[in-house]
Every structure is written in structure tokens, then in C-alpha cells.
TrEMBL record:
<dbReference type="Pfam" id="PF04954">
    <property type="entry name" value="SIP"/>
</dbReference>
<dbReference type="Pfam" id="PF08021">
    <property type="entry name" value="FAD_binding_9"/>
</dbReference>
<dbReference type="InterPro" id="IPR017938">
    <property type="entry name" value="Riboflavin_synthase-like_b-brl"/>
</dbReference>
<dbReference type="InterPro" id="IPR007037">
    <property type="entry name" value="SIP_rossman_dom"/>
</dbReference>
<comment type="similarity">
    <text>Belongs to the SIP oxidoreductase family.</text>
</comment>
<dbReference type="InterPro" id="IPR039374">
    <property type="entry name" value="SIP_fam"/>
</dbReference>
<dbReference type="GO" id="GO:0016491">
    <property type="term" value="F:oxidoreductase activity"/>
</dbReference>
<protein>
    <submittedName>
        <fullName>Vibriobactin utilization protein ViuB</fullName>
    </submittedName>
</protein>
<dbReference type="InterPro" id="IPR013113">
    <property type="entry name" value="SIP_FAD-bd"/>
</dbReference>
<dbReference type="InterPro" id="IPR039261">
    <property type="entry name" value="FNR_nucleotide-bd"/>
</dbReference>
<feature type="domain" description="FAD-binding FR-type">
    <location>
        <begin position="106"/>
        <end position="227"/>
    </location>
</feature>
<dbReference type="InterPro" id="IPR017927">
    <property type="entry name" value="FAD-bd_FR_type"/>
</dbReference>
Length: 343
């Protein structure tokens, strides 16, 4: 555990009612591991560790991380949660230690387009040169792409209180999450895939992008590689890059099943697959739906090393969450269920 970067905050006064339980609920909604006690709550972000502790005079916050970007991301996450519970309390916090102020966020980078090429019927692969690429190597497999509405962008900044301020109004940025396909720190570039869909803002950008165009990059943005002996994975086109990357990093002795549903069979691609895992491609509208395959998959029993990973439309994910939590009895640490889009 590398926790060389550290910041703390203090609030004196009556804390919001049921603060720890409320905060734990918000954090768990993001599938973050938490440990809730009578007077303290701890949570693990991707590569950062947070402790919120009550005392007779108020409460204190302690955040530790391996680098400045991870520290800033975790602190922003904590502030978002506290804003939901009590904006007044959040605004009154006094921060000490390593806190970025009056600069661009430590997890912000500029990216420059190198090229865009088609890799399948409905996917474009974008290659980007990125300053500070070494900061993207750990902390998750996702990042946020920031697209400005005009030729002179206004990027996010950190104010004198250490909060990230995002441009609004005519300068509001389009933000979309993507998965790294390849990261090359030696040469300073990375690639990611864009699934083309009608009316998509990133689709339009990718089709028109030219070498030298500049965008904003925020990240890494979470999405850890699951650690389990047996996995059941599923997703649609939007999840295909993440599924492929997880499989690329899977141990050779992993077992389980993978289900990928696409509308166009031409988007099927070669997937690295451990010998003990089986991949099933599904055609939307013709084969049995993705959700039915996920719910019918066989999982080891309680106490064994198992994990369910699903990223798809929000309704599918809600139904899967009910099943795996209430009927299959999986704990939060045994699954990642994410709505990548809403119908």
C-alpha cells in the first residue's frame, strides 16, 4: 500500500444526522468497499484510502493515496458524497496537507490526436499522445474524454478551496467515459475505441478528428481488474473494450463464462481468453437476451472465489443487481454491475 500522499480535513460542530450510515450508502452505490463502525467509516477508492471518524467535537477526514492525482480524485469523491448529505457541512471543512489550489486538477491532462482508424463495422480506434501519461498507468482502466464546444476550450480548474470547478454555460464540456485499449508510456501515447451510434457527440467528434486536435483527459477513472478464480462476465457493444481489457489481464487459470451481445455480428473480434473460460457471442433480437444468459450462468458457492461483471443498459443492470444480490446472495465485493447507458 503506497500512501505517501496525504490530506486531512476537520469539521467542528454537530455532524449531520446519521452521517456515517448515509455516507456508506452513497459509497456502496458506487460499489466501493466500505467498513462501517459505530464511530468510523473507511472506504477504499481505486488506489486511495479514506477514513471518516466521529468524535465529541465533530468529525475528521483522513485521505491517503499513492500519487497526487489519486489523492485529488478520492477527495473529490468524498466531497461529492458530503455535498449530497449536507452542502453546508461540506463547505465548512478545513483542509490541511497536500491540497491542489488555483491550478488545473492533478488528474487532468491534455491529449493530442495522432490518428483515427476503423477497426470493425461500428468501432473507431483513436490514438492519442498525452502529456503525463505515466499518471494513467495505475488507478483504473477507464478515463474521461473532455470535448470543448468551441475552438477555444475552457478546462476545469481547482479553486482556492481545493474544489474542481467545471466550465458551464456556453463553455460546458462534454464528458464521456472510455476504456484504454493500449497504453505506451515509453512513446507517450494510448488508444481507445469509440462505438459509433446515431447522434453521439463523441461519434461525431471521432469521425471529424484530425491529427493535432486537442482534447482534455481526466483520469484514470476507476474500473479495477477483478480478482477471482471464477468469473461470469457480460456486456453489450459499449462494454466490449472493457471486457477485452479485463480478459487480456486475466490469469491463465481463471474459469467462467463471457457473454457479449451485439446488434451487428461484424463487430465481433478476437478476444484473449483463458483456457478455462468460454465466450458466447449473442445477436440482439435473435438470440436469447444477454440478461437471461447472465442469470442462468453457474457460479461457485458462498466462500469460494467468484465474481460477476456486467456493463449494459440500465434496466438490464437493475434486474441483474436484484438477482445476484437478493437471490444468488453475492456480496458487494463479489460483483461489478454498471449501467453504461439508459434506453
Amino acid at each position: 500500500m503506497n500512501d505517501s500522499h496525504h490530506s486531512t480535513a476537520r469539521f467542528d460542530g454537530a455532524p449531520p444526522e446519521d452521517l456515517l450510515r448515509q455516507a456508506a450508502g452513497y459509497l456502496r452505490a458506487y460499489d466501493l468497499p466500505t467498513d462501517l463502525g459505530e464511530t468510523a467509516l473507511s472506504a477504499t477508492f481505486s488506489e486511495a484510502w479514506v477514513t471518516l471518524e466521529l468524535d465529541g467535537a465533530g468529525f475528521s477526514l483522513d485521505i491517503r493515496a499513492g500519487n497526487s492525482a489519486q489523492l485529488h480524485q478520492a477527495r473529490e469523491g468524498v466531497l461529492v458524497v458530503l455535498d449530497q448529505i449536507s452542502p453546508e457541512t461540506c463547505a465548512a471543512l478545513e483542509w490541511q496537507g497536500e491540497v491542489a489550489r488555483n491550478v488545473r486538477p492533478p488528474n487532468f491532462h491534455l491529449g493530442t490526436v495522432l490518428d483515427v482508424r476503423r477497426v470493425s463495422a461500428n468501432f473507431l480506434r483513436v490514438a492519442m499522445r498525452c502529456e503525463g501519461i505515466c499518471n494513467l498507468l495505475s488507478g483504473g482502466m477507464h478515463f474521461s474524454l473532455l470535448l470543448a464546444p468551441g475552438p477555444v476550450p475552457r478546462w476545469p480548474e481547482v479553486n482556492d478551496k481545493g474544489r474542481t470547478v467545471w466550465p458551464d454555460g456556453a463553455d460546458k464540456l462534454h464528458r464521456a467515459a472510455y476504456t484504454f485499449v493500449e497504453l505506451n508510456p515509453e512513446e507517450g501515447w494510448f488508444t481507445f475505441d469509440v462505438f459509433e451510434h446515431e447522434g453521439g457527440q463523441t461519434t461525431g467528434w471521432a469521425k471529424a478528428a484530425k491529427p493535432g486536435d486537442t482534447v482534455g483527459i481526466m483520469g484514470p477513472g476507476g474500473g479495477d481488474f477483478p480478482q477471482a478464480d471464477h468469473m461470469v462476465m457480460g456486456g453489450d457493444e459499449t462494454a466490449l473494450p472493457a471486457i477485452r481489457r479485463i480478459l487480456e489481464h486475466a490469469p491463465t487459470d481463471r474459469r467462467g463464462e463471457v457473454f457479449v451481445e451485439t446488434a451487428d455480428p461484424a463487430d465481433r473480434c478476437d478476444m484473449p481468453l483463458p483456457e478455462g473460460m468460454r465466450l458466447t457471442w449473442l445477436r440482439r433480437g435473435e438470440d436469447e437476451p444477454l440478461l437471461e444468459h447472465m442469470l442462468a450462468a453457474t457460479l461457485p458457492g458462498p466462500g469460494e472465489s467468484r465474481f460477476v461483471w456486467l456493463a449494459a443498459e440500465a434496466g438490464i443492470v437493475r434486474a441483474a443487481r436484484r438477482h445476484f444480490r437478493e437471490e444468488a446472495g453475492l456480496g458487494r465485493e463479489e460483483m461489478y454491475l454498471s449501467a453504461y447507458w439508459t434506453a
